[in-house]
Amino acid sequence: MDKWNETVNIDDDVYILGDVSWHNVTKTIGLLNNLNGNKHLVVGNHDKKFLKNRDFREQFVEVTNYKEIALDDREKMVLYYVIIRSPVLIIIIMVGIIYMVMYIIALNGK
Questions:
Q1: For residue 81, what is the domain's CATH number?
Q2: Which strand (E) or helix (H) includes residue 90?
Q3: Within 13 A of 14's CA, how many CA atoms are on the CB side?
Q4: Which end of the chain is more exposed for a tag (fewer CB within 10 A), N or C?
Q5: For the sheet containing 74-85, what is the strand order?
Q6: What local confidence, expressed as pLDDT, does residue 17 receive?
């Protein structure tokens, strides 16, 4: 948490790409509440239960299933997407972590 708050300023936008926490919702809310930044959640498949909790949802300025952001005049995609295909269960998870890190670095001017 200290490293996060050293890197992320209070008014920075941070995109959290799904599966926020393995803790219970109460502990997760406490952790999120102590993290700097305007938190945007791109929903992961393990976030569904937490999203039923109003206090959890209020930790984020935005909750969405898909998000695109612009950086350096080019479009960047932040994506957490699960595809389940039957009868053979195929799960494809694509996470735009590189773009999230680039965005945070760009916001901090480093």
A1: 3.60.21.10
A2: strand 90-95
A3: 20
A4: C
A5: 66-71, 74-85, 90-95
A6: 83
